[in-house]
Amino acid sequence: MTLISYFRQIEMVNFISPLNGEIKVVEFFGKLILYVNDAEQSGGTIAGMWQKAVKKVQSSKFKVQSCLILGLGGGTVIKILQKYYPEVYMDVIEFDLAIIDIAKKYFDIGKIDNLNIINADAFKWIKQVRNNYDLIIFDLYVGKTNPRKSRTIDFLKDLKKILKKAGIILFNAHYQNDEGEYDKLLKDCRQVFTIVDLILIYPYSRILRLR
Length: 211
Description:
The protein is α/β, with parallel strands linked by helices.
């Protein structure tokens, strides 16, 4: 880490991914932040958001032995989960090999134990998997928004099928001041899940707890 980053952002890498568009890693205040199409994906304020969300789950005495994470980014939530649940086994689904390479090279994700990174289309993968998970973290984004497929009843039902009976889903829902779209997501979630709680509000996203 460089001293200069405490005064201005230092760009570490910048390139175009065929799947995600512009990807860049910057160092700021001695820490790395991942941006995809200028949307913050890991580090920075994202770290604070997931820290609060996971801590809320942990403080409720909820036990997590297995976790599925949809969307890798720089692996911020992975490190936070390991902090609160050191023995947790994690499957991570990421469609873009460029993101996987970035996470390993710049964010040291390859050094984490009990972590299985799978390069796959999450929407296809969850229809085939036979595992069930205590915790599912949905963090799929294309730039600043969730993929359209993820905001459907069919997708929510697919998630529920691979969730253990007493399990929890943390759904990172984009929020772009579109009340109608957000209200529809809540309505669809309530058709599939018994409990739908808004546990965290951030400027451009909302963390929903589904079970």
